Amino acid sequence: MVKIKVCGLTNFADYRIACELGADWAGFIFYQKSPRFIAPERARRVIKRGRFSVVKVGVFVNEPIARVREVFYQAGLDIVQLHGNEDPAYCQALGLPYWKAIRVKGLSSLEEMENYSCETFVLDACAGISYGGAGKAIDFSVLQKALGMERKIIVAGGVSVETVEQVISLRPFGVDVCSSLEECPGKKSEQKMREFFHAINK
Predict the structure, then answer these.
(1) Of 14, 19, 24, 124, which residue is the catalytic one?
(2) Tell me: the pLDDT tens digits for 41-54?
(3) Exposed end of the chain (fewer CB within 10 Å): N or C?
(4) Which residues are CB-contacts of 13 (< 8 A; sequence separation ≥ 6)?
(5) Which of 7, 19, 91, 178 is the catalytic position?
(6) pTM, two decimal places
(7) Do residues 149 and 113 make contact, with C-beta atoms less than 8 angstroms apart?
(8) Residue 156 belongs to a domain with what CATH number?
(9) Measured between alpha carbons, how far is 202 from 198 in angstroms, rounded to an integer?
(10) Listed residue (160, 153, 164) closest to 133, CA to CA
(11) Known catalytic residue at 7
(12) Which secondary structure element, helix H or strand E, spans residue 122, and what is its range?
């Protein structure tokens, strides 16, 4: 089964619905320039209130290592997703379980994966200066190449109810869905979430 990450969660209601529908990972964005930013103390309250068994993922962009560690423990996270320009030395020094996001421009972008020691990578489409959440899809020929590299690949670019069947036909490790499930940035639509999980589980 392809695992599902619902990202950009900012409130308990959306978190609860995502968990009850069967999300494997819940994503909280700690990048302050994102419209889906959540403060660490608020994320902690959301997580503690629910006590769901879902894996909690914190998304960071070019943060100082000390800050990532602080938020990791403060919010009660399980995994760090590094979605910026963090180099291998940074990741090595972090000392926490992490995924590295690769902003895919083309096949050459996949070469970056060879530099990191992590097992899991999040592939997101490169959308100008945006660090995720733009809804832009990755070229499927690039995805197919990545899936042959013996790494765990989570597909993040342009995943929606319309595209998910095609994406999961490639058998990635997981999909990361965010903006396509929203009413507006930071607020999920329950109907869209239900439709997405129905599409992926049918």
Answers:
(1) 124
(2) 999 999 999 989 99
(3) C
(4) none
(5) 7
(6) 0.93
(7) yes
(8) 3.20.20.70
(9) 6
(10) 160
(11) yes
(12) strand 120-125
